[in-house]
């Protein structure tokens, strides 16, 4: 996947706002995987993936419905951004395990969407 910029975080957060909070991280992991696959295709062929774009997270969000840009970052918008960041951190950690040969997803270990879910932050 290409470098994640502020625009990517904005688009992914707006997509996450329309996802059920219980499944956000799992859905975002799928979106990140799609962006990564699109980037691999772009590198191999020089062409964009027809659905997932050019390998950026923002391009992978292009086919998804997006919530309007929040006028202020209320608790729900902050939770959606936190889910995006958690999914990115988890994806990068899993990829690091693959590269080090520690049994990441590419080494035969199966990670279910339930295993990927992180507890939602407590909102007081």
Description:
The longest helix is centred in the last third of the chain and has 26 residues, at 75-100. The chain has helices spanning 6-16, 24-45, 57-60, 75-100, 113-116. The radius of gyration is 15 Å and the shape is globular. Helix 1 packs across helix 4 (75-100) and helix 2 (24-45) crosses helix 4. Residues 103-124 have low confidence and may be disordered. It has one domain. The chain contains five helices and no strands. It has 124 residues and is an all-alpha fold.
List the main descriptive attributes of the protein structure presented here.
single chain; mainly alpha; disordered C terminus; 124 residues
Q: Which geometry do the CA atoms define?
A: globular
Our count of domains comes out at: 1
Largest sheet: none
What is the averaged pLDDT score? 83
Uncertain ranges: 103-124
- Backbone structural class: mainly alpha
User: What helical percentage do the residues reach?
Assistant: 40-55%
Range of strand content: under 5%
Instruction: Tell how many strands the DSSP assignment holds.
Output: 0
**Distance between the ends:** 35 Å
Order of helices and strands: HHHHH
* SS element count, helices: 5
Radius of gyration: 15 Å
């Amino acid at each position: 996947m290409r470098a994640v910029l502020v625009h990517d975080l904005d688009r992914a957060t707006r997509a996450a706002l329309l996802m059920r909070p219980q499944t956000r991280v799992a859905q975002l992991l799928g979106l990140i995987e799609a962006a990564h696959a699109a980037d691999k295709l772009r590198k191999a062929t020089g062409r964009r993936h027809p659905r997932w774009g050019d390998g950026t997270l923002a391009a992978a969000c292009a086919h998804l419905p997006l919530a309007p840009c929040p006028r202020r970052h209320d608790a729900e918008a902050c939770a959606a951004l936190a889910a995006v960041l958690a999914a990115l951190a988890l994806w990068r950690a899993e990829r690091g395990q693959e590269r080090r040969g520690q049994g990441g997803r590419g080494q035969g270990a199966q990670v279910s969407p339930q295993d990927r879910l992180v507890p939602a932050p407590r909102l007081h």
